[in-house]
Amino acid sequence: MPYSQVVGQLWNEDQSPPVNLKWINLEGCMYLTKVPDLSRSLQIKHIDLKRCGRLVEIPSYFQHLGKLTYLDLGQCTNLKNLPEMPCNLEFLNLSSTAIEELPSSVWSHEKISHLDIRYCGHFKSLPSNTCKLKLSLGLDYCNSLCEFWELPRDTTQLQLSYSTIKELRNASIESVIGLTAIELHRCESLVSLPTNIWKLKSLKSLNLEDCSNFQNFPEISEVMEYLEFLNLSGTAVKEIPPSIRNLVVLRELDLHNCKNLEVVPDELFCLTSLQVLDLKGTEIKSLPASIKQAAQLSLLFLNNCKSLESLPELPPLLQCLEAEGCTSLKTVSSSSTALAQGWEKYKFSRGLIEKHTFFDCIRLDENARSNIMGDAQLRIMRMATESSKFKEDKIEKASYNSNKESVVGIRCGGNEIPKWFSHRSEGCSIKIELPRDWVSTDFLGFALSLVVSCQEDYYDIWYLISGCKYNFKTSNGESHAVDHLLRHPPPENRLPIGDPHEVWMWWHSSVFEEVVQGAQSPTAFYKLVTELNVDFIVRDDCYGPHLIEKCGICLLYGKDVEKMIKQRAL
Questions:
Q1: Which of 464, 550, 451, 553 is nearest to 508 (CA)?
Q2: The pLDDT of residue 140
Q3: pLDDT of res. 6
Q4: What is the DSSP letter of 125?
Q5: Cβ distance 334 to 375 under 8 Å?
Q6: Tens-place pLDDT, residues 161-183
Q7: What is the C-alpha to C-alpha distance for residues 372 and 409, in angstroms, rounded to an integer?
Q8: 28 — alpha (psi -120 to 50), left (phi > 0) or beta?
Q9: Helix axes 366-386, 559-569, angle to 10 degrees
Q10: Helix, strand, coil percentages in the chain from 3-state DSSP, rounded to 5
Q11: Cβ 136 vs Cβ 116: under 8 Å
Q12: Nearest by Cα to 558 from 439, 410, 461
């Protein structure tokens, strides 16, 4: 009888309860205030009372229902007390109830394989008797949970997010040798971790995000051969211990919004497996020069590091660098040597996105801007070289798929198109004459650049500049237009503090992957093209004349790569 309108109780006390009843479903009976009398239904196996929001108690005789294996009380939001449970119970759902504690019989139960007590906001503590449960326990959103003594030995994931727990006890942790993940997201009362946490040799993930009172990260006393993910974001940690080197397989370290963190340890970049480092919103002033040794580092986030003053040479395989709002950043070292020397290790894949952004870095000096622009040329040439090179057979067989487009994008403050762009123009369009053999076998595509003005009334530049249109014209008057969405990395929706001008540079892979209609073959058509017009599209005509101040285009060729690498590798 799920979701029926029964009011009060299902049958009167003077009626005989069904003796042979084995299964009852009263899910969603919101007006049910009492559990039907099942005291003589000793054959019952399955009871579903989920979402019976007016139930306040479960009768004590439930412990004598010896054949009961399934009891669902989830979202019985007024249920405060639970009696002792029968010995054969296997499934018990108490999520989103108002219970404050578990009966000891549940905690010492050996047959329960599913126990859900998540979202129990009044739940205060776990029983202190010996735990015999063989399951993985979730305690997420138990906002009143302050402590526990022992965990089920078979727990593989400890989920305590949004609880008020202050510490993890040594004894309770040591017993759970198969633990692979600890989730302590927003446990704002948590102040420490037990030192023996490093005895958990199977641990793969440790998440302390937004544990705002957590200050002291313990020394890593053991080599951890499985821990890949460590999240300390939003904590009060002041330093990362040098023993971080013992996390030998760490792939991702999240430290964003650690407001007290001022130093990144030099040992961190000895970790050859590190791929993602998030330092957004920290108080670091610099990064160790050893970062260039982080051979696998591909994502580095430094947004809103207001105290960051300099960036050293970065590792060659870094795909994404976000340094937006680094208002003290003055110097950025060139990474051209590392890029040139590590060229052969670059691994291109279809749909690869690379972006390097320096939006609102108002103190960058000219040398820093020059280094960013020079590195941008190398990054663009590298991806263009390693991607499809528009050989004749590839043009013929190409199938357009924008979801698989590969892109390199760089954003930096400035008001000039970089000098390496061979064609430059004022405004939002550019026309160039193409050389006779421009679409040769080593042609790699077009690099594009814009100087945009981020004035106060241009509230969302990324939205306004929607893309560009290539219009190819042949000597006999035939033409073909290719519309292309702008896939340059979007800025944050905020206004710059300093100079409102910004330079965008990017390359994308799919200009030639659209079949030219009406031509015998795409290759034959492009060989006849002598003129190219590129118009950058602004959604609102009111902003068009002012938003894009300058634009540029550069034809890329494979023959230029070797020369460039030699120059930069010196």
A1: 553
A2: 82
A3: 65
A4: B
A5: yes
A6: 888 888 877 666 777 778 899 99
A7: 12
A8: left
A9: 140
A10: 20, 25, 60
A11: no
A12: 439
- Return the number of other C-beta atoms located less than 10 Å from residue 96's C-beta: 21
129, 207, 421, 479, 506 from 380: Cα distances, Å: 63, 36, 12, 28, 7
Q: Is the dihedral of CA 15, 19, 20, 24 positive or negative?
A: positive
Tokens of 548: 């894009």
Q: Is the C-alpha dihedral spanning 339, 340, 345, 351 positive or negative?
A: positive
**b or e along 229-257 (b: 16 or more beta carbons within 10 Å of the residue's beta carbon)?**
bbbbbbbbbeebeebbbbbeebebbbbbb
| CA 50 – CA 31 distance, rounded (Å) | 13
| Pair type for strands 465-474 and 479-485 | antiparallel
Cα dihedral: 19, 23, 28, 31 (round 10):
0
Q: Are 205 and 228 in contact (CB under 8 A)?
A: yes
Cα–Cα distance measured from residue 435 to residue 537, given in angstroms and rounded to the nearest whole number: 26
pLDDT score for 11? 59
Other C-beta atoms lying within 10 Å of the C-beta of residue 386: 16
Low-confidence residues of the chain: pLDDT under 70: 3, 5-17, 136, 149, 170-172, 388-404, 454-466, 486-499, 510-523, 539-546, 567-570
3-state secondary structure of 369: helix
Q: Are 28 and 2 in contact (CB under 8 A)?
A: yes
Among candidate residues 455, 462, 466, the one with its CA nearest the CA of residue 491: 462
Helix (H, G, I), strand (E, B) or coil at 403: helix
Measured in residues, the chain has a length of 570
